[in-house]
Amino acid sequence: MSSSEMESKRKIAFGISEIAFDEFIKIIKILGNEDSMNIFLLSEKGITSSKESLKAIGLTQKRFYSRIKDLIDVGLIEKREGKYKLTQLGKILINTIMKLEPILLIKDKLKVIDGLENSGILSEDKKIDFIKMIFPEELNDFFTTETVSLIHIIPTFEDLKNELIFEIERSNNNILFISKYYDFSVAETCIKKMESGIKFFYIMEEFKIQDAFKLIGLLLSPKSIKVIYDFFSNYKKNIRIVEKIMTSFIIIDNKIAIIEVTNPLDGSFLFAVKIKDKKIINTLIESFFNIWKTGKEFFIK
Q1: Which end of the chain has the smaller Cβ count within 10 Å, N or C?
Q2: Of 123, 154, 122, 129, nearest to 143 (Cα)?
Q3: CB 234 within 8 A of CB 222
Q4: Domain ranges of the chain
């Protein structure tokens, strides 16, 4: 197969027109040079060929003009008002690059996610490093080889729901639950435990409430709807509403915690972690009540 045929197949595979593909390759080649990238980024505010500018970016005049020519040739910068500035194409591209920054900063986390997707489970020898990456810094000191033995990975959302129902049914004293999700089977289990006298504190997202009630109206019988509404009415002092929940978790009898781990790219459910380490649980309890203090009391309109 000739190089031109291979190139044509690559273009077809990516679904990019030949013109766009060629332009993309040219730009990538130019910005792959560190000097060119530095000049390109500095051009956002405008850059001159003065001795001060050349000294600041560590380039000789010859190298500076060579890189400037490359950037002009691919349409990323132009000279205006005595300065080299971004073209419209350059402005669009630099905005795209800036959007990539937070993703590049979590590159190590993404590698672990790739490993999870490929293997289906997190290997024991990688647990500590991964846990330290996905949890807040204040928890990191608690993770040791001994701690990791008390950690269990829950791989799917369906498994998470089953685990929640199982652990809630076994609870004897109290439950602290903060969740951005609503599932009727989990909610029904919580209601039964509250009615049996278990101390229950629940934090939910404000915009999720109406979604939950709409779902109730669509899926449940009038009797079931009454049970749910009675629950929200009778136990409203046990509920707080917050604008946004970043991570869902539950603490049962101050002995077990189940924590959601989200995909850092889109915030979707990735997997959950079940923990029995007391120091970690105590930190989560403190975090729960700090969030509780910021919440609003619940009421049905």
Answers
A1: C
A2: 129
A3: no
A4: 3-104, 107-297
d(CA 24, CA 76): 12
Position 120 pLDDT exceeds 60? no
SS3 174: strand
Joined together, the tokens standing for residue 262 give 């989200």
Instruction: Tell me the per-residue pLDDT of 167-192, one tens digit each, with 9 for 90 and over.
Output: 999 999 999 999 888 777 888 888 88
Matching residue, tokens 């008390």: 150
Q: Is the pLDDT of residue 99 over 50?
A: yes
CA–CA distance, 134 with 131 (Å, rounded to integer)? 5
pLDDT tens, 202-252?
998 875 555 555 544 544 556 566 666 666 666 778 889 898 888 889 999
Average pLDDT of span 50-79: 89
CA distance 60 to 83: 18
What single-letter amino acid sits at 234?
A: N
> Which band of pLDDT confidence, cut at 50, 70 and 90, is reported for residue 258?
very high
**What is the architecture of the domain spanning 3-104?**
Orthogonal Bundle (1.10)
CATH superfamily of the domain spanning 107-297: Endonuclease Chain A (3.30.870.10)
CB 176 within 8 A of CB 250: yes
Burial class (CB in 10 A: 0-12, 13-18, 19+), 239: buried
Confidence at residue 26, expressed as pLDDT on a 0 to 100 scale: 92
Within 10 angstroms of residue 223's Cβ, the number of other Cβ atoms is: 7
Residue 285 tokens, joined: 């309890």
What's the rounded Cα separation, in Å, for the pair 285 and 300?
27
Task: Enumerate long-range contacts of 69-76, CB under 8 Å, 24 or more apart.
Answer: 70/30, 70/33, 70/36, 71/30, 71/36, 71/39, 71/40, 71/43, 74/23, 74/26, 74/27, 74/30, 76/27, 76/30, 76/40, 76/43
Phi first, then psi: what are they for 244, rounded to 5°?
A: -145, 135
